[in-house]
Amino acid sequence: MGDPLFVDGIDLGVVLFVVVKALLGFAFVLVGVILMIWFERKVLADMQNRVGPARAGKWGLLQTLADGIKLIFKEDVKPDRADRPVYRLAPYLSVAPAFLTFCIVPIAGAFGGDDNGTVELFGHETFLQVADPPVGVLFLLAMSSVGIYGIMLAGWSSGSKYPLLGSVRASAQMVSYEAALGLSVAAVVLLTGSLSTHAIVDSQADSFLDWNVWRTGVLPFAIFFVAACAELNRAPFDLVEAEQELVGGFHTEYSSIRFGMFYLSEYMNLITMSAIIVTLFFGGPAPAFGPDGPLLGLGWFVLKLVVFLFVFVWIRATLPRFRYDQLMDLGWKRLIPVALGWLLLLAAIRIGQDEEWFTANGFWNGTLIVAIAVGIAFICGVAILVAMRGSDRERIDEGSAELRKVP
Asked: pTM for this structure?
């Protein structure tokens, strides 16, 4: 399919159009970060019976801007034992992947039917997203992996043990949950038959019941959401910045605007991942009901985005932090087997519904493949139950050992 902007080739006008789209996309995310920080402070204050920002601007709306200006003018301290080039590079490796991931998200447009999310602006037909690569989902997974390097290199290059511990935790945590996140995305790709985010949104545009959250059976969405919380280092998975143990985590030795860039990347990633959830599972800009249109699509997209941002804040205000062994158990012993088993089950169902495939491969061969897929899914389920029983037994043994110590 591809963006119709490039149908007639690339000239100076097309290049300028892409640059303008990129700048507008960056402005959208940047303004979103400013509002999101204020929104989180206000919601947390309401949930915890506090006032929250109330002085800088009306309702404290300018508080985030004031904090940003303060960070810009603070002293930029550089540790003596730091690896200077890597120390300077690390914040950029955290910010850049967050924005590049947002570039593939369709934020508006009339999807379904003949419109296909295309709009005409200044004499050019285009999609209302910065880019629509044919391998958009793979680009998403690649950028989420690159983001790990920013955190890891920040801790390693600081020349201090506490940031290094925080970065090691971060790399282990993010790699662990990357597998579950990728398997849940694979379920969406399996049903839609495309790696393009634009095509994925278009496949959900006909009806509210066509959203991938229902078509995949809800479970891949739940796995993706939990894995996204861990990828974002959000509570209850914020062990990367466990201040009771690690002072401040991987960015302990950063100050001024470099610390501000890590702060910016955290909230930029939060907005981007919420937008990805909306795109993959909840129809993106496609309306849940009522008329369709480019501006209405933008309204629906922002509404869905705000809902998930609120849920992330709600979780932060509600749940306590996991222990590290609980975090790793959840990723490796629960989420990955469940995601793999569910993916194989969806594949078996899809093959079972494809009469042409059965005709081409023979009925018995097709039945054998379906049976194998269902069998592996069953084995994954059994593995989860065994792991859970093993964890329960370990906790009982630990409790018994503690009781025996009591005089």
From this structure: 0.88
